[in-house]
Structures are given as C-alpha cells and as structure tokens.
Amino acid sequence: MREVAIVAFGQSDHVRDSAETSEVEMLMPVLHEVLDRTGLAARDIGFTCSGSSDYLAGRAFSFTMALDGVGAWPPISESHVETDGAWALYEAWVKLLTGEAETALVYAYGKSSPGDVREVLTRQLDPYYVAPLWPDSVALAALQTQALIDAGLTDERALAGIAARSRAAAEANPHAQLRGAIPPGEHLVAPLRTGDCPPISDGAAAVVLAAGDTARRLTERPAWIRGLDHRIEAHSLGVRDLTDSPSTRLAAERAGAFQWPVDTAELHAPFTSQEVVLRRALKLDAPDSTVRINPSGGPLAANPIMAAGLIRLGEAAARIHRGESDRALAHATSGPCLQQNLVAVLEGE
Fold first, then answer.
1. Whether pTM exceeds 0.85
2. Of 121, 116, 110, 113, whose CA–CA distance to 305 is shortest?
3. Collapsing DSSP states into helix, strand and coil, what is residue 68?
4. ω into residue 135 within 30 of 0, thus cis?
C-alpha cells in the first residue's frame, strides 16, 4: 500500500470567545504556518479537504467562506465534511492512497462561542425518540458517567484525577485554553462537575499530508499513517452499552493498533468519563502501562468543536516529528456518548 504521512501540523491559540475574529481570520495564520513549514505554496497542494459545521456557524454553506483563506482561484480540487476534521483527513488519506494526489491540505475550525453548544449538539440525536426530549450533550455524558460509576469502573475521585493530569500536561502546550490546577467545581449535571467537562473553545487546526518520497522531501521525520479506520455505534442510545465502545475497539483493531505497543495516545475524550471508556476499549488501562495519554492536555484543555479530533492526530504527529514518540495512537470522536470513532496509528521512520 502507498505510504502517506502527516508532514506538518499547526493550530491556533484556543480561546473562550473570538468575537472579534471571523472564521477566515482565525484560519489563515494556521494555513500559512503549515504551508511555510513544508515550503509549499497553495498552488502546490493536490487536494484540499475541510471539516466544520454549519450548525455552529448558524448559516448554510458557511465552509465556502473559509475557502477565502485557502484561495480557490485558480480552481482547486476541494471537498468538505460536515463533521470533525479528522474525517476530512480520512478522505484526504484515501485520495492520496489512490494516487490521485501527492499532497493534501486538511483543515478544520469551530467557533462555539456565538451560540449554546449544548443545544446545538442536540441536532445530532435521533429525531424521533431522543431529540424531542432535548437531552443536551452534558446531560448525556452524565448519563454515561453514572453508568460507569454504577458498574464500578470509576468514581468521582478518579475522574478528578484525570482532569488534573490533563490540565497539568497542558502547561507545556502554548495553544491550550485551560492549564494547571483547576478545582473540580460544583456539579454541572451530576455526577459530572465543571472540572470533568471541556471548555467552550474557538479554534482552528490544519495538517499537510504527503505521499512516499514527497513526504521525506518535505520533512526530516514524517509521521507515517500505518493504519486508519472509523466505525459507528447504533444511533439509538437505548440499545448501547454506554460503559463500552465496541466501535473504537474495532477501528483500533482494523488500524493495527494492537499489533505493536504505542508510546503515546492522543484521545478525543471531551469528558473525563469518556477517557475511562476509551482506555478500556484501546487496552490502555493496565496498571503498569507506560503510554503517555494526552500529553498535550487533550480536549479537557481546549475543545474547539469540529477541530478537536484533527488536533489529536496533529498532536500525535507533532511528537513524532520532534522525535518524542516512535509509535502513537490518535483517536477522534463525533456524536453523543462516543457514537462515532476514528483511530489512527502513526509511526516515525
């Protein structure tokens, strides 16, 4: 199979409110950063793919405005996915595997601040049986958390430890929104406390993919994508075991995550309880495990919706670029209670 690698990664500084900055203004510095790192110009990119949500922007076809930051003239080969940018990366990866392009630019952005994210995300729910009840994203995550506690798989103290570890790791991440010691806080939706939940974040991210010798020419240490797969759970929450994630386990198996040990795992777990589910599904919960989980701070430190999953892949790749990791796992999710899951395995030379 043709080799494809992530050769550059960039992200914005994630903030609570970017009211004075448009999506294009937020995105352009990130696009320039990744292109400058590779020495490529926009005209050298063979395929461009983006991830975002019109529901967050509040207008139809909002992604076409973001193309102003890329430059769509002369005409370019371009596509868009109405989900997290990790799935845009998947589309670009397939494009390069087929030989239709040598390089690809993938970007994603999200501004959560203008509206009520908890209400916006109800649009992901089953429109007949669940959405009319208006359970928001935090309430559903709390339902999953309570199921884990009732099963004896975690408790509030352990969840507070996950939050503390993640935000302590974010101290070394200049782009993180929340860093350092943050108190668990009051119950937001019991048993979840404010410290168990992700911040409201505005931000953007981009990566450049390249194939074979092109990747080796563009960077000293490419982060080769050795496997990539995504799976989905049943849409109805009532038929799922919320304490487990079979789709994550299957995606990891198909991506080759269990063939050799990884040293780093960037997990897209917006809520502390979801990290518990993912660690079990990905076999990272052994007491003697030495895998570094979310050394960037993860989505508990910054959670720009529609870009946070792509950032997990980018952060894992960046550690390989810097020589801090040899084999990393990256995970992205979309939908309520880890409904859709993507897993990638990245390796250095």
1. yes
2. 110
3. helix
4. no
- Are residues 342 and 335 in contact, defined by beta-carbon separation less than 8 angstroms? no
Enumerate the H helices of 124-271 as residue ranges: 137-150, 156-169, 212-218, 246-255
Residue 125 is classified by DSSP as: S
Are the C-beta atoms of 78 and 72 separated by less than 8 Å? yes
Distance of CA 29 to the CA centre of its chain: 20
Rounded Cα distance between 266 and 268, Å, is 7
- Residues 192-249 have pLDDT tens digits of 999 999 999 999 999 999 999 999 999 999 999 999 999 999 989 999 999 999 999 9
Question: What are the structure tokens assigned to 152, written together?
Answer: 């004896």
Do residues 218 and 8 lie in contact, with contact meaning Cβ atoms separated by under 8 Å? yes
- Calpha distance 240→244 (Å, rounded): 8
Kindly report the number of other CB atoms within 10 A of residue 165's CB atom: 18
Angle at 151 between CA 146 and CA 155, to 5 degrees: 55
Q: What is the pLDDT of residues 32-46, one digit of tens each?
A: 999 999 999 999 999
